[in-house]
Amino acid sequence: MVPLSFAGEAFLALPEAALYWPARRALLVADLHFEKASWYARFGQFLPPHDSRATLDVIEALVDRTGAQALFSLGDSFHDSDGAARLDPQARDRLSALTERLDWTWITGNHDVGVATLPGGRRVAEANVGGIWLRHEAQPDDPRPEMSGHFHPKLRLSLRGRHVSRRCFVGSATKLILPALGALTGGLDAGHGEIRRAVGPGAAALVPVADRLLRFPLA
To answer: How many C-beta neighbours within 10 Å does residue 219 have?
Structure first.
């Protein structure tokens, strides 16, 4: 975990694509996309079927590691409106146990807007926590501090003939986009025009490694 300052608050960035807020004892995650593999399987495209369990493995480990008492999931927690219903019994029980253990908030995303019943927690369109707005998709015209997901940012570099791709945060003075935590989520290049439009001028890709946060300005 490495320090990350945003909107006057101290956070810890985790290489597992999550953010911890010590003052709130809260984990922030985005784009879990539970049951993505089973959605594709319905259309004959078979992916490794254990994506939900793998994502839960990461969340459980982060909760244990940080001692978090709350969790905010910034939208697209399920890959589609039937995703929660397709969870296998073991995954459902594990997720229900987490929502009972934590003060869990689901923020609605474009993929999971139609989910009828969630396994615990509460669902909101957006939330204001300590003066920071938590949303699924950034609102470029809103000048208030904001955290969001949606874009699955990745930093792609070419180093010594090798192509490197890492999940990253993208931040500016008032915007912070979290990477996707879900096991089967892809990613959009951090320098893509849509991401730069969402965060505004002065944006940088932020990559937590070991004991420091690497910053790559986005032209």
So the answer is: 6
Identify the bridge partners of residue 107 per DSSP, sorted by sequence position: 124
Distance in angstroms (rounded) separating the CA atoms of residues 53 and 94: 9
pLDDT in tens, 151-203: 999 998 877 777 878 999 999 999 999 999 998 788 999 999 999 999 999 99
The phi and psi torsions of 123 (rounded to 5 degrees) equal: -115, 135
What are the φ/ψ torsions at residue 162 (nearest 5 degrees)?
Answer: -110, 140
Token output for 184 = 């089967």
pLDDT in tens, 89-136: 999 999 999 999 999 999 999 988 888 889 999 999 999 999 999 999
3-state secondary structure 84-113: HHHCCHHHHHHHHHHHHHCEEEEECCCCCC
Q: What's the CA gap between 209 and 99, in Å, rounded?
A: 29
**Of 76, 119, 126, which is closest to residue 101 (Cα–Cα)?**
119
Coil/strand/helix, residue 185: coil
Q: Which long-range contacts (CB under 8 A, 24 or more apart) does 206-210 make?
A: 206/4, 206/13, 206/168, 206/169, 206/170, 206/171, 207/155, 207/166, 207/168, 207/169, 208/1, 208/2, 208/4, 208/13, 208/14, 208/15, 208/169, 209/2, 209/15, 210/2
CA 127 distance to own-chain centroid: 15
* DSSP string over 12-41: EEETTTEEEEGGGTEEEE----BTHHHHHH
DSSP strand pairing (153-159 vs 204-209): unpaired
